[in-house]
Write a structure and sequence with these properties.
- Helices cover 65% and strands 12% of the residues.
- By secondary structure, it is mainly α.
- It folds into three domains: 2-60; 76-173, Winged helix-like DNA-binding domain superfamily/Winged helix DNA-binding domain (Arc Repressor Mutant, subunit A, Orthogonal Bundle), CATH 1.10.10; 179-250, Winged helix-like DNA-binding domain superfamily/Winged helix DNA-binding domain (Arc Repressor Mutant, subunit A).
- A three-stranded antiparallel sheet has the order 1-3-2.
- The termini are far apart.
């Protein structure tokens, strides 16, 4: 009988102890949450002050903007990602509108040049044309700014994508179609030549057969509309001009 009462008392004490531990854990969790909220409030206040002080520099100075992005990425914040992904950070800094404006200008340039380049434009050319469209007062933009903005356009499903064609060269695609490996090589070689390419260059530099070079170029011409044919080239008889690899002074 005494043993039975002892077991019951021990069970009661254990239950009380577990309850106390649960209460203590709850109190600690609440304290931690309160501390975290306090730190977040302080951080938001500090960032608000920083935004008010340096907003113009972030928008107009690419070096300052890059340093700011690096600082934010170290704490997992991306205020330049646009209003949807950047949340209140983007809204508070006023960068959501800036990113949206840049995205619209990129689309404007890509669409207006699509008829001549087939929807593929060289990165440097895109930066130059967007900068001209923005004007001096809007501040300098960089390749990094354009790449970030294009990432925000991808959910539109219009095919906007940055392509690395080798040799440190980048192209921007604005149509829903993939470039195959041979086309990427042709674009890279055409850039070296100022926008034109012939079968002989691909054969000599890349070791392609004549059939492979001809098939790839004809696909770009007839299937994808990415180049123009000059059938009266004085040296090679037939040359292909690729608008996206040419520099246009507009």
């Amino acid at each position: 009988m005494n043993m039975h009462r002892g077991v019951g008392l021990a069970a009661f004490d254990k239950e009380q102890l577990s309850k106390r531990f649960a209460e203590l854990s709850s109190e600690l969790s609440k304290t931690q949450v309160d501390n975290l909220q306090s730190q977040l409030t302080q951080f938001r206040t500090a960032l608000s002050h920083f935004a008010a002080t340096h907003r113009d520099s972030i928008r107009s100075d690419p070096a300052f903007r890059h340093a700011f992005q690096q600082m934010c990425s170290s704490i997992g914040v991306d205020p330049l990602a646009g209003p949807r992904k950047g949340g209140w950070w983007a809204e508070m800094l006023g960068m959501g509108d800036w990113q949206h404006e840049l995205g619209v200008q990129i689309v404007d340039v890509c669409v207006s040049t699509r008829e001549r380049n087939g929807g593929v434009i060289e990165m440097g050319e895109l930066v130059r044309m967007v900068s001209k469209l923005r004007g001096v007062e809007s501040g300098v933009i960089t390749e990094e700014d354009v790449i970030r903005s294009i990432k925000t356009l991808q959910p539109l499903g219009a095919g906007y994508e940055v392509l690395d064609v080798g040799g440190g060269k980048k192209m921007v695609r604005s149509v829903v179609k993939e470039l195959d490996a041979d086309q990427a090589v042709i674009l890279a070689e055409a850039q070296v030549e100022g926008g034109w390419i012939v079968e002989a260059i691909l054969e000599n530099r890349r070791g392609w057969t004549g059939e492979r070079a001809r098939a790839a170029l004809e696909n770009m011409l007839l299937r994808d509309g990415l180049c123009w044919l000059d059938s009266q080239d004085e040296h090679y008889g037939q040359a292909y001009w690729i608008p996206s690899a040419m520099r246009w002074d507009e």
